[in-house]
């Protein structure tokens, strides 16, 4: 296992950095915001709590929560326009600095493509660098499920995305940054995991992550070291 010093060196020399989105790049959880917007916030929050503490797979939890929300295309678009996701302080500067260094930045999220695209646009991250879940709608705009072929729709999906990136682009060092257990589980195949607790602290991640930060300025400072 790499030491903290080794992990910092991996971060400084990384080819690619993958960020989780909900509660990492943005301050909120997209599915919870969508549930509140559609009037089922409390019921979905309770379902999330049960899923976190039990042995429910990510896909089963996602299916159940979306089955309760059943968001229409119009509702998703209105959520984004009326309550746009709020960027976490420091993320804009960090992504800009990584881009200046020629590092590829990816958004790897269990959230929804349409919301993540809005975030990517603000950070100058190309749409091709997004891996997220895609909602499906009928012609009349009603909810029709989600694309179950996306790797991020199931447990272990973020690791699959990193494996795919390494195979496709021949990256030598890929860093994963996020607040949750699914982010931590992506390393390996990721070469370094940085736990983020700036918006919400997940006890398991804080205890197990060798490198744990609460503000993106900490990572900017690491990049300035060199």
From TrEMBL:
Pfam families: Hydrolase. It catalyses: O-phospho-D-serine + H2O = D-serine + phosphate; O-phospho-L-serine + H2O = L-serine + phosphate. InterPro entries: HAD-like_SerB, HAD-like_sf, HAD_sf, PSP. GO terms for cellular component: cytoplasm. SUPFAM superfamilies: HAD-like. The active site is at residues 20, 22. Gene3D superfamilies: HAD superfamily/HAD-like. Pathway: Amino-acid biosynthesis; L-serine biosynthesis; L-serine from 3-phospho-D-glycerate: step 3/3. Its cofactor is Mg(2+). NCBIfam families: HAD-SF-IB (TIGR01488), serB (TIGR00338). This is Phosphoserine phosphatase. It comes from Brachypteracias leptosomus (short-legged ground-roller).
